[in-house]
Amino acid sequence: MSSFIKWSPQVRDLVGDEVLRTLCRTTKDYNCMRCERDGRAARERTHVIVVCPPGMPYFIQFAHGRCAPSQVIRLPQSAMTGEGDPNYSEQVITTQFLWPTSEGFLPGLIIDRPPGLTVVRANGDVDDLWTQLLLRVGWDLLVSLDQPCRHVNTSAVELSDDGGTGRVVFDDPDHSDSRLVLVDRLPALLPEWRQAAADTGCIRILAGTIGTASADHRVTEADVIAAVQQGSVVGALVPVAAR
After folding, report:
1. Residue 182 and residue 105 in one domain
2. What are the φ/ψ torsions at residue 41 (nearest 5 degrees)?
3. Which one of 74, 100, 118 terminates a domain?
4. Whole-angstrom Cα distance, residue 231 to residue 23?
5. Which domain of life is it from (predicted)?
6. If both were cysteines, with which of 1, 10, 34, 78 could 68 make a disulfide (CB 3.0 to 4.6 Å apart)?
7. Are residues 114 and 64 in the same domain?
8. Whether residue 62 is found in the same domain as residue 145
9. Residues 6+ positions from 11 with CB-CB distance below 8 Å
């Protein structure tokens, strides 16, 4: 059991003595949350940091004693949605698609967002927190590109009646009277796409960290397939609403 692991009273009140005893017994090597260099909990002073995303379970990180104090970090909603960042919307790549069906065409959007806040779980899995938000409001984690997506009423594509563009919003799972913005402004909409949206009343949306948001090329089917195989894409059939 490591005696080098230290925590603040706030951390102890939140996670409890049993969790802290388990950390002392099992924690060995770690990656420092602050300097991102390796740390050794059995040999050097190590501080416990608890991060609390809004509406989600907390997760525990570690830092060298010299790098950061033990503390509880409560993240604002904007840390997960990009709200308040004037450059964030420019980093989101939204592409229009028309998927052929037996009844015509189904309009679609592929939303590629830059990597956001992630959590590394104990088993090594990495969860993107804004993707987890969409899963909480009924979106599906995609395992293949042709996977059917469920229809969700917790989200909407709000289109302007005057021929302008629109935005994509979804319910805040922690505040029933508010909505969060997934895309604050869609690109100029093609007439064929807008007509298909009017005919079907819904949009098939695939959203995730696909990788083109930081690259100099348009999203391709191969990009989306690769992201789906990595478990980085969620999808839903989203109703159209007037804005």
Report:
1. yes
2. -65, -20
3. 74
4. 29
5. Bacteria
6. 34
7. no
8. no
9. 20, 48, 49, 50, 70, 71, 72
Tell me what pLDDT residue 115 has.
62
Percent of the chain past pLDDT 90, that is, above it, reads 34
Tokens 């960042």, residue located: 85
Neighbours of 198 (CB within 10 A): 11
What pLDDT score was predicted for residue 80? 47
SS3 64: strand
Backbone angles phi, psi at 224, to 5 degrees: -65, -45
40 shares its domain with 119: no
Whole-Å CA distances, 90 to 21, 70, 102, 160, 213: 45, 35, 36, 20, 9
Tens-place pLDDT, residues 114-131: 665 555 454 445 566 678
* Closest C-alpha among 23, 97, 81, 15 to residue 50: 15
Nearest to 114 by CA among 96, 98, 132, 94: 94
Q: Are 189 and 196 in contact (CB under 8 A)?
A: no
Instruction: Let me know whether 27 and 139 are in one domain.
Output: no
